[in-house]
Specification:
Chain lengths: ~100, ~500
């Protein structure tokens, strides 16, 4: 199966990647190969086999007690932020 | 059952998000308190720093199971967390941890009572655990948005109904019942203003009798019961207009604008519906064994429907009264306490139960409302109210005087007996005293008396009023009526 240009552009948009015109065929080729590989897997006989959600058989999720263990460290964390005001992280305007 | 608008039938399904009242977040040890200073409750896991791992909060799981049991649902022995991928600044990881193919709760139901008293069961497809996103703030910032991630990672259950509702009223009735239930279970505070209980509505229309559903629109941002009804009704009208005008309804997300009372398209969401879910490799499947479910089942309180049914059966209340009095767990308990205090060891009579219902849902509810108090903050506790009602039952005071005593009891912490004595409000049941008052009134109003005796029956009310006035409202009304009738007849 090969992906067309529109599909590549749509996948790139979902991942917020901007591709140049020259890059589109490159991804068309490589992503199509990945899809083909999945196609091979898809052809395997899996009837009657329970899907595996995790590669650690026999283990289940451990639960944490409901206690607050974290302190307010926003000043420390916000040193990494490009822009902060009144303890808010600032981003380009997003509004509906 | 209901059709509307020239044979168009409305089809509604609701997605309800209820924030679970845990102390800490679903995947981290950050606090979840509402109203904290911005980002003071957002830590490494919530901020999606590299290398961090989510660890599931056991209390969130317990609450979800509790909800599942209360709606008669199946609790999945094995459920799986999945990543829902989308980009938004209030979602630092670029995905929301949710559940997709294997939710923790599936196939439940909720019964609603319709206006005509009939009952209808609304199917609940699923309820899954997920994390909330942060908040974007736009005010006071010209070209930027401010992000507060305190809410990011707060545990939610998303409760998804079947498209079983056929009118905005049914949708509101269902939403209210879920709202009451989560508060009974003490898994969510139900505060719609603070966003801890929110709802999206999937709305479509079809010609009555059609088998296929119409194309639906999803309405977001409905944060009050009133808005749910308004938003749905607006959307139904809009869709009918579109179709009757020769157009087609587009499947899209629409935002309800309460100021304008309309829904409008959210264009940015249209292309973002490809969430590319996949199992979250950071989390193992959640396994729930029957013993754990049994343990939680044993902690379930009496549920609203059970309580209402008991009120109807044991106290002979109407379904309406029972529903009103069970709208919160605390109100139901208060009513129970009043009735028990009033009836003592015996079963309450129908009159006692009805009297208590009228007072709790009437004067008491009005006073609470006026002072913006919950039932738990009532200035008159169940025992004191029962004391007052006891004095109505034993004829010490009339129902009318009782209203004044109630107000006095609300204002000062005295028993009703103290107030009745101090103010001399004891009802006059002495026949001689009432007769004396009647004689005086008749002597003072010879004109009216003559008119009454010549056939103006309506003047009876005038005489009742005058005698009541003369006795300070304390004459026993039944006795007064009887004696007055005799005296006036001459």
């Amino acid at each position: 199966m090969s992906l067309n240009r529109d599909q590549i552009n749509s996948i790139a948009h979902l991942a917020r990647l901007s591709l140049t015109d020259a890059e589109v065929p490159v991804y068309q080729d490589s992503l199509s190969k990945i899809v083909d590989l999945v196609g091979q897997l898809d052809a395997a006989q899996t009837a009657g086999i329970e899907p595996m959600a995790h590669p650690l058989p026999g283990l289940a999720q451990r639960l944490r007690p409901d206690t607050v263990t974290e302190k307010d460290q926003h000043e420390l964390f916000q040193r990494n932020a490009p822009q902060v005001e009144a303890a808010l992280y600032l981003v380009p305007k997003v509004i509906e | 059952m209901s059709t509307s608008n020239n044979g168009w039938e409305t089809v509604i399904g609701l997605e309800i998000h209820a924030q679970l009242s845990t102390n800490s977040k679903i995947f981290s040890g950050s606090a979840t308190a509402y109203g904290a200073a911005p980002n003071s409750q957002a830590n490494l896991v919530d901020l999606a720093y590299p290398g961090v791992l989510p660890v599931l909060n056991g209390e969130a799981v317990r609450m979800a199971v509790k909800f599942g049991l209360a709606i008669g649902a199946e609790i999945a022995p094995r459920s799986v967390f999945a990543r829902k991928n989308y980009f938004y600044p209030d979602l630092p990881k670029g995905y929301q941890i949710s559940q997709y193919e294997l939710p923790i709760v599936a196939k439940g139901r909720m019964e609603i009572v319709l206006d005509d008293g009939s009952r209808k069961t609304i199917g609940i497809t699923r309820a899954h655990l997920e994390e909330d996103a942060g908040k974007s703030l736009h005010e006071g910032l010209p070209r930027q948005s401010g992000i507060d991630l305190n809410r990011a990672g707060t545990p939610l259950i998303e409760i998804v109904s079947e498209p079983d509702m056929r009118s905005a009223k049914e949708a509101v009735a269902y939403l209210k019942k879920i709202h009451t239930l989560v508060r009974y279970l003490e898994i969510c505070d139900g505060n719609m203003q603070e966003g801890s209980f929110r709802c999206d509505a999937n709305v479509s229309v079809r010609k009555f009798g059609a088998e296929k559903f119409g194309t639906r629109a999803e309405i977001k941002n409905i944060n009050s019961f009133r808005f749910v009804e308004k938003a749905i009704n607006y959307e139904v009208e809009r869709q009918i207009d579109v179709i009757e005008g020769g157009g087609k309804v587009v499947q899209e997300t629409r935002l309800y604008d309460p100021d304008k009372g309309e829904t409008r398209s959210m264009r940015s969401k249209e292309e973002a519906n490809d969430y590319r879910y996949f199992p979250d490799p950071d989390l193992l499947p959640v396994e729930i064994d029957p013993a754990y479910i049994g343990e939680i089942k044993a902690t379930l309180p009496e549920l609203p429907d059970e309580k209402a049914a008991r009120f109807v059966l044991a106290y002979d209340l109407s379904q309406y009264d029972a529903t009103v009095l069970t709208s919160s767990k605390e109100l139901g308990a208060y009513y129970d306490d009043v009735v028990k205090a009033l009836a003592g060891e015996k079963l309450p009579s129908k009159e006692q139960a009805k009297l208590a219902a009228n007072w709790v849902a009437g004067s008491l509810a009005a006073a609470l409302n006026e002072h913006n108090l919950e039932i738990t903050g009532s200035r008159i506790d169940a025992k004191r109210l029962a004391g007052l009602l006891g004095r109505i039952v034993d004829n010490t005071i009339s129902g009318k005087i009782a209203k004044d005593v109630f107000e006095a009891m609300w204002a000062e912490d005295k028993s009703c007996d103290e107030i009745i004595e101090a103010r001399g409000l004891r009802q006059i049941t002495d026949t001689g005293a009432i007769e004396k008052a009647i004689d005086e009134v008749m002597a003072k109003n010879p004109g009216q008396l003559a008119d009454y005796r010549s056939g103006k029956d309506k003047l009876f009310g005038f005489f009742v009023g005058q005698v009541m006035k003369a006795t300070g409202g304390k004459a026993n009304p039944a006795q007064l009526n009887e004696l007055l009738k005799k005296k006036l007849a001459g």
